[in-house]
Design brief:
Belongs to the eukaryotic/archaeal RNase P protein component 4 family. This protein is α+β, with helices and mostly antiparallel strands and 197 residues long. The chain has five helices and five strands; from the N terminus they run H-H-H-E-H-H-E-E-E-E. Helix 1 packs antiparallel against helix 2. The protein is flat, with a radius of gyration of 27 Å.
Amino acid sequence: MAKNKRKVFGQRHVCSRMNFLYQAANLMAQNNNNTLAAYYGKLCRNVGTKAVMHIAPAVKRTLCKRCSLPLLPGVNTALVVEQEHEVPSTAKAGGKRRNRRRRRRRRGKPAKGQANAEASGSRSGSEQKSTTIDDNATLQLQCGLCQKQRRFCVDAEKECWLERPEALAQVITMNARQGVAALHRDSYSCDKPTADH
């Protein structure tokens, strides 16, 4: 009997308002109206904070932490992929370092290493290496409005706790006609299994 009860979702209007403000912020950001987009993004955050509603982590990552501008790479955000370079094994093992002297280069003549690299580059003009992103790379987004930088790990195995299935306690589905939400328990909820009476 208790399982068939419907729970009224009292903050439906807050969800719809936050959704509208987030969509408006994205639309304004695509039209290069960044100040208005940041204002709508900040309003979206403030509405959620006041109503004590949490924004999904995937949505949070798309907003700038400082000015709440929707981060759209190529439109209002600079996107840089930084890859960690492996340290040679001699440096890891604590090998001795050689003191290398900087050689002066004559004007107009390239350095020895540069000349060799240019010569080998001209030989293999058609054979260009494709760059791949490794698991240790970091994704850096720089906001175009406030210049705040955000870094994200590219590792596919790392994920936010809230996005894992075992973190899900309950799913609330919205019924548009009645304005009521049905409460469902999933098989992978955090609750301990109990024997049915």
